[in-house]
Amino acid sequence: MAEVELSNISKTFEGAPRPVLTDISFTVKDTEFVSLLGPSGCGKTTLLRIIAGLEDQTSGKVAIGALDMNRVAPRDRDMAFVFQNYALYPHFSVEDNISLGLRLRKVDKAEITARVKTTTEMLGLEALLERKPRALSGGQRQRVALARALVRNPKVFLLDEPLSNLDAKLRDKTRGELRLLFKKVNGTVIYVTHDQIEAMTMSDKIVILQEGKIQQVGTPSEIYEKPANIFVATFIGMPQMNILQKKEMTAMGYALSGPEAGLSDLTCGIRPEDLEVSAAPREGWLEAAVDLCEPTGALTTLTLSAGGTALRCSTTLKWPLAQTRAWFTFKREHMHFFSTAEGTRL
């Protein structure tokens, strides 16, 4: 495996009104699992294709194992790419799809047989080797595409939303399997997704992109606990973080204390799980109307209205559906503060 380093990568398509990527720099350490996370159109897939050599950057450098890749053809970068649509040859069997890359590289037949056997056993595909892709389920096709990448034993694995075509139950199951699999093979992985759950549960590090620019790079816990700006704060976490202007806090009756109290350029953030809520009055707590109650089993999400402002709260309480009033308070130590003008963390 090898370290991947991106330095000042920018990309502008001819005729486009603005760059697709602007000054992208980060490092993927050897055997690290890094997710590129962001909404549709933020430049994730374009960046992955630049790393693979399938797209040329306008400026900047891609290095693998300290070697400059800017003039190296895709086939010589020693990377395996797993596409969103799996890209399996419909007229080939599973075995032929998996072994094709090795055969094109004229790897010894005995070596091909051994590698295919090891990889298919790892992914539970032994009984499917003679089938064609049309006879496979979505989950099985996804595993065949992964096997085709794994059998090559490349320096770097590149995955472009490989779970997006699976149903929710299978996607949930496959997430854990993928993470264990890449740990087992000590893979260096760059993984594109728009799903924050995938990124948070699978990654050693997350690169969050918006409009072609990096918003934050960090571990899942760093990004969740200390979001760099309002975009990251609201993009990560379900339900979404409550974002409140200082005047809204005042209108609902909450008095800020500490150094933030004197700031006029202030926006406050509080995650729904960091609101404490009660169905009965509590001394010093604020009163709100319950506009919506959404039980999901272990957690219930309440939409509250206080001082003309909507708040969302997650609670483990079995909330009475007939209860239309609530009393709440903020966990002060879990509040986040941002500049209203810049949107950046204070």
Q: How are the strands of the biggest sheet laid out side by side?
A: 6-7-8-3-9-10
Structural class by SSE content: alpha+beta
Helix content: 25-40%
Strand content: 25-35%
* CATH fold description of the largest domain: Rossmann fold
Distance between the termini: 39 Å
Order of H and E elements: EEEHEEEHHHEHEHEEHHEHEEEEEEE
- Largest sheet at a glance? 6 strands, mixed
Mean pLDDT: 93
Beta strand count: 18
- What's the domain count? 2
**CATH architecture heading of the largest domain:** 3-Layer(aba) Sandwich
- Broad shape: globular
Q: How would you sum up this structure in a few lines?
A:
26% of the residues lie in helices and 29% in strands. The chain has 346 residues and is an alpha+beta fold.
Name a few traits of the molecule.
6-stranded mixed beta sheet, 346 residues, 9 helices, Rossmann fold, alpha+beta, OB fold (Dihydrolipoamide Acetyltransferase, E2P), 5-stranded antiparallel beta sheet
Structural summary, described in words:
The chain is 26% helix and 29% strand. The protein has nine helices and 18 strands. By secondary structure, it is of the alpha+beta class. It folds into two domains: 4-235, P-loop containing nucleotide triphosphate hydrolases (Rossmann fold); 242-338, OB fold (Dihydrolipoamide Acetyltransferase, E2P) (Beta Barrel), CATH 2.40.50.140. The longest helix is centred in the middle third of the chain and has 17 residues, at 168-184. The radius of gyration is 24 Å and the shape is globular. Strand 7 (156-160), helix 5 (168-184) and strand 8 (189-193) form a beta-alpha-beta unit.
